[in-house]
Amino acid sequence: MTTVDIMTPQTAEVAQIETQSPEQEWQPPMPPTDLIFDDGEPLESSRHRVTMNALIRSYRHHCAGQNNFFVGGNMFVYYSSQQVKNKEFKGPDFFIVLDVPPDPARQGWVVWEENGRYPDMIVELLSDTTEVNDLGEKKALYEKVFKTKDYFVFHPFKVNSLQGWRLDSYKGYQPIEEDSRGWLWCESLRLWLGTWQGVIEDDDAVWLRFYDEAGNLVLLPEEAEQQRANAERQARLDAVSQLLQMGLSVEQVAQALSLTVQEVEAAR
Hints:
Elements: H1 9-18, H2 46-62, E1 69-72, E2 77-78, H3 81-85, E3 94-98, E4 109-110, E5 121-125, H4 131-135, H5 137-146, E6 150-154, E7 163-168, E8 172-175, E9 184-186, E10 191-200, E11 203-211, H6 221-238, H7 240-245, H8 250-257, H9 261-267
Parallel strand pairs: 2-4, 5-6
Antiparallel strand pairs: 1-3, 3-5, 6-7, 7-8, 9-10, 10-11
Helix pairs in contact: 8-9
């Protein structure tokens, strides 16, 4: 008797699967690569731009020599394919990601290219047109999707506008209490955020600045250089009396210390 194999739809499907080559196996869709990194929209004002740059430059100077962080400003953060399809561009005014290579060639922060890492700390610079969104939709995004540990907002034209939140694993964002100086502690960076009155780029205003744990202003590179120059000059002035007591003339002291005769006379 001849045995006939009957091929049912179910056995046919199994046979098809069993005969599939590795090339035919299902592959997950690749993330998009045609990303936009500039929407042509400038910051709200020159003061917003200067504030952002001051935060970036002072933090980089504070961490000079370290290569385990990335700091960005007004850059898109891409976190899902759906976001790209909907053209929902999200660009924090200032953010820091810790424990990553610095890579200054990044045009934006693409989460799926960064091992799933999101910003650890974000600052949004409020304006009259963005405040509602920064305190509403964006805040919810940073809390529920990014899970950014520390989120701060500040309006460059409103002195008392600084607010901050720390992410609690169970309760979500919780307000950060200000200290007696009005500063807020950023646990992620181990730095204070507070205001500072002074001139940056010819604009005398109240700026958002970093302070270290001891309460010292985190300096911009040019401020640090000026501080160094002032200390060096003071050391020369302090040496005037000693050199005069050794019998040198005012002119000789001035020449030895690279001071003017008038400066030596005033310091004696």
